[in-house]
Amino acid sequence: MFLFFYEDFLYLINTKNTILEKENKWNKTNQWENEIEQLHAIIRKTPLVETTKWGGPVYTYNNKNVLGIGGFKSYFGIWFYNGVFLKDEKKLLINANEESTKSLRQMRFNSVNEIDEKLILAYIKEAIEIEERYNQTIEEVLEASYQSLRQELAQELLQRVKSFPPRFFEQLVIDLLVAMGYGGSQKDAGKAIGQSHDGGIDGIINEDKLGLDVVYIQAKRWENTVGRPVVQAFAGSLEGQRARKGILITTSQFSIEAREYVRVIEKKIVLIDGEQLTQLMIDYGVGVAEKATYTVKKIDEDYFSGE
Questions:
Q1: What 3-state class would DSSP assign to 213?
Q2: Domains (range + CATH), the chain
Q3: Taking burial as the number of CB atoms within 10 A of a residue's CB, which of 212, 218, 261, 293 is the most buried?
Q4: How far apart are CA 200 and CA 45, in angstroms?
Q5: Which is more confident, 143 or 246?
Q6: Which of 4-8, 21-25, 58-62 has the lowest mean pLDDT?
Q7: 3-class secondary-structure state, position 91
Q8: Max alpha carbon distance in the chain (Å)?
Q9: Per-residue DSSP letter, 225
Q10: Alpha-carbon 236 to chain mean position
C-alpha cells in the first residue's frame, strides 16, 4: 500500500539537491561520520535492506522505504517514512516541516550518548510491523483484528470469572456444558452438577441428550497450577465409579506432568484450563454478548456466468 505522501517526496528531493551541492550524501557537514556508522550498525541487526536513494542511505522492507539516516549541521538522526503511524510513546519523533511533510517523522540526536540501541530497535520493529500490516489483504487485516479483540475479551472474561464465588463457577460450568450439547436440558444438567461430591467428583452429566453415557466432572476455581497428583486423584475417583470419561476444569493451568499423565492412561480425561475455558465461552456464547457483526462479500461468479 502506498503510504509515503507526495509532499514528503518533494521534501526529500529538495533536501537531496542541497546535499548534493556539498557531499552527495546525507551528512551535510561530515561531522557525524562515527555516529552515523553506529546507527548503521544498529539497523543492520534488523531485517531491513540497505539501499541508496536520493543520494543517501535508505533502508527498505519488502521493497518499501522504512527509514533513512543522515547528519545535519546541529544533529544527526533517523527519519521514518511512515513515522506518523508509529505510537511514539516516548515522544521522540518530530515533523521537520509541518507545511511540507505528512507521514515523515525524524528521531534526532545531538551526541552519541543519546543513542539508545534498545529503544531504536523497538521503533524499527514497530515500523516493520506497520509495513507488514499495510501489505496485508483486507481479509488478513480483519482476521488479525478479530483475533486480537478475541484475545483481549478472553483475558477479561477469565479475570471476571475468578472474581466471582465458587457457586457462580459451578453454574458457569453448567451453562457451558449445556451450550456445548451435554446434559440434555438446563434443568437436568443443574441436577447433575454439584450433587455428587463423591470421592473427588463434583458432578455427573449426560454426554448426550438421550443419556446413553455419562461424563464425570470436577471443577476447580484455582489460581495455582493444577499438578499431576490432582489429576491422578480424579482418575482414581473415576475408577471408583467404574467411569470411563471425565472433564477436569480449572481457572488456572495444568502442569506439563498433568497433561502427560492423561495422555498415557486408559481413561479419557479432558483437561480444560482457564484459557481454553474462556475460548469455549466465546465460541458458545456463554457470558458474552454480540457487539457488532461485519459481513465480507465477494462477487457472485454464478450470477455473472450467464447460465
A1: coil
A2: 6-135 (3.90.1150), 156-283 (3.40.1350.10)
A3: 218
A4: 55
A5: 246
A6: 21-25
A7: coil
A8: 90
A9: P
A10: 39
CA-CA distance, 79 to 82, in Å (whole number)? 9
d(CA 95, CA 89) in angstroms, rounded, equals 15
Task: Work out the pLDDT band at 103, boundaries 50, 70, 90.
Answer: confident
User: Is pLDDT at 5 greater than 80 in this prediction?
Assistant: no
* pLDDT of 262 strictly over 80: yes
- Report if pTM > 0.85: no
Question: Which grid cell sits at 154?
Answer: 478472553
| Structure confidence at residue 197 as a pLDDT band (50, 70, 90) | low
The mean of the pLDDT values for the chain is 84
DSSP 8-class letter at 254: B
- Counting beta carbons within 10 angstroms of the beta carbon of residue 266, is it exposed (0 to 12), middle (13 to 18) or buried (19 or more)? exposed
Helix, strand or coil for residue 205?
A: strand
**What is the DSSP secondary structure assignment for residue 116, as one 8-state letter?**
-
Distances (CA, A) of 70 to 32, 73, 75, 81, 133: 8, 11, 9, 14, 27
